[in-house]
Write a structure and sequence with these properties.
6% strand, 155 residues, 3-stranded antiparallel beta sheet
């Protein structure tokens, strides 16, 4: 669910020399971590490189949507602490809200603390059945152009 074509297009628009400069090098590295589903490492690296990522409103929420999509494809039940680390959230309320927004259910064996999250596939099924409009693609390309321009202005 990553915008791979948009991401690739932005990389192709950059001069090869720029690919090895900050912040482009960092963005490519972060993108590679996401493609490999190395979410814990991604959030750690993002925290260390927060200065320019904060310019993009909704960036972290979009990443969490991708995490939710990947988790939904991979798991039917996941340990709570593992999911928490994948989401990069800073407190219990945000985590609970995220889990609820995905339609997932916390599970507590015998009334104990919550140890697992039951992953529902219904939201994933809805995402796969929803037709995509071509109008959204145009908006995404414009947004990606703005991102590329912002990165070039920081170089």
């Amino acid at each position: 669910q990553l915008p791979l074509t948009d991401y690739a297009l932005c990389k192709y628009l950059l001069h090869p020399d720029k690919m090895l400069e900050n912040p482009v090098e960092i963005v490519v590295y972060l993108g590679d971590l996401l493609e490999k589903c190395q979410f814990r490492t991604f959030w750690r690296e993002l925290k260390e490189n927060q200065s320019f990522i904060g310019l993009f409103e909704g960036f972290q929420d979009s990443i969490r949507d991708f995490v939710a999509y990947s988790v939904g494809l991979t798991y039917r039940r996941i340990e709570r602490d593992v999911l928490w680390s994948y989401c990069g959230l800073d407190n219990e309320r945000h985590f609970s809200d995220f889990v609820s927004s995905q339609g997932w259910e916390p599970q507590a064996p015998d009334g104990d603390d919550i140890h697992h999250i039951l992953i529902s596939s219904s939201r994933l099924d809805q995402q796969q059945q929803t037709p995509r409009s071509t109008g959204k693609l145009v908006v995404d390309l414009v947004e990606m152009r703005d991102v590329a321009l912002a990165f070039n202005s920081h170089l």
